[in-house]
Design a protein that fits this description.
Elements lengths: L7 H12 L7 E6 L5 E6 L5 H5 L4 H15 L5 E5 L2
Parallel strand pairs: 2-3
Antiparallel strand pairs: 1-2
Helix pairs in contact: 1-3
C-alpha cells in the first residue's frame, strides 16, 4: 500500500479544523518567498481566533512546531502566520 504524503498545507488545515467551532471557515493560503521558504497564512472565523492561538499563544506555538517538523522531513522551510 502506498499512501500519498500529506502536504504541510493540508496538515495545517486538518489540525486547525479540529480546534475551531466553525471548520468550514478555515482557510490556508500558501505564499512562496524569494528565498525558497513557504509561508502558510491561516485564517479562521472571527470567534475562533482564541481557539487557534490558545492561552499565552501555546496552541499557535504547538501548531508551528508540528508544521515545521513535518516540513523538515522534506527539507523545506515553512512558517505559519495567523492572519485576520
Amino acid at each position: 500500500m502506498s499512501e500519498t504524503p500529506i502536504s504541510t498545507k493540508e496538515l495545517l488545515e486538518y489540525l486547525a479544523r479540529g480546534l475551531v467551532d466553525e471548520p468550514d471557515r478555515v482557510t490556508v493560503h500558501e505564499v512562496q518567498e524569494d528565498d525558497g521558504s513557504v509561508v502558510l497564512e491561516l485564517s479562521v472565523g472571527r470567534d475562533d481566533y482564541g481557539n487557534v492561538i490558545g492561552r499565552g499563544g501555546r496552541t499557535a506555538s504547538a501548531l508551528r512546531t508540528v508544521i515545521k517538523s513535518a516540513a523538515a522531513r522534506t527539507g523545506r522551510r515553512v512558517f505559519v502566520d495567523i492572519v485576520d
